[in-house]
Amino acid sequence: VIADEYVDREFGTGALKITPAHDLNDYEIGKRHGLESINVMNADATINARGGALFEGMDRFECRKALWKEMDGLGLVIKTEPYVHRVPRSQRGGEIIEPRVSTQWFVRMKTLAEPALEAVRRGDIRFVPDRFEKVYFNWLENIHDWCVSRQLWWGHRVPVWHVVSADDAAAASSSADSIDYPEYFVARNEEEAYAAALAAGLGEGVRLEQDADVLDTWFSSGLWPFATLGWPQKTPELEKFYPNVVLETG
User: Fold this and answer.
1) What's the gap between Cα 68 and its chain centre?
2) Would you give per-residue pLDDT tens digits along the chain (250 residues)?
3) How far apart are CA 31 and CA 35, in angstroms?
């Protein structure tokens, strides 16, 4: 049992169950109190072994009904009453969104936000109308790291190559046990990734595989000026049109 200011003591019983791996607010509470994030759901929204033998393999909706029936059969249900609340749904497919802790790729934003803030403070960038400066400062001064990976069918692939298998010779070397080889390499392309793997001592037989995730749509749209003008090569188009002097949003 923990105490946290997030809980509204006037609502219901005043007690709140915490599931850090399956609720955004609970996740933040869990971090504050050092709670373990226990994931009971598979990627396909079925229940895993941590959800209990009675419910393992069930679809999430079936499980909720079965769990309630089990609680009722054990005499643990005090009462039922209707309650209206907001259910988050996918903008594209309409499916009910199920928060679930998973491994994602993030961009560290603080080092990017500071120069952007300073550019406005110096007057290098000006907002029209200027009241939007307040919104801009509030956003960037309280910025969080940006989750840029998405599990979609199309998009720019995340530029990360995972080590699938290392060269047998490198793995069998006498010093292999004392070397902490990287598990992945971030690179512009596959050729650079393999070069980095060889430089790390993984051997000629190393096999890499690019991450299946794609970049967030907004992150990809930020690449548009570069991708269409020939960057990273210094093309005449890039020199003429970028950087721009006006950005229109709305």
Assistant:
1) 32
2) 888 888 888 887 888 889 999 998 999 999 999 999 999 999 899 999 999 999 999 999 999 999 999 999 999 999 888 888 888 998 888 999 989 888 899 999 999 999 999 999 999 999 999 999 999 999 999 999 999 999 888 888 999 999 998 754 455 444 445 467 889 999 999 999 999 999 999 988 999 999 999 999 889 888 877 778 888 888 999 888 887 787 777 6
3) 6
How deeply is 164 buried, as exposed, middle or buried, from its count of CB atoms within 10 A (0-12, 13-18, 19+)? exposed
Tell me, what amino acid is at 185? F
CA-to-CA distance for 163 and 193, rounded, in angstroms? 10
**Do the bridges between strand 160-165 and strand 149-150 make them parallel or antiparallel, or are there none, so unpaired?**
unpaired
Q: Which two tokens stand for residue 215?
A: 């970049």
Task: Give this prediction's pTM.
Answer: 0.74
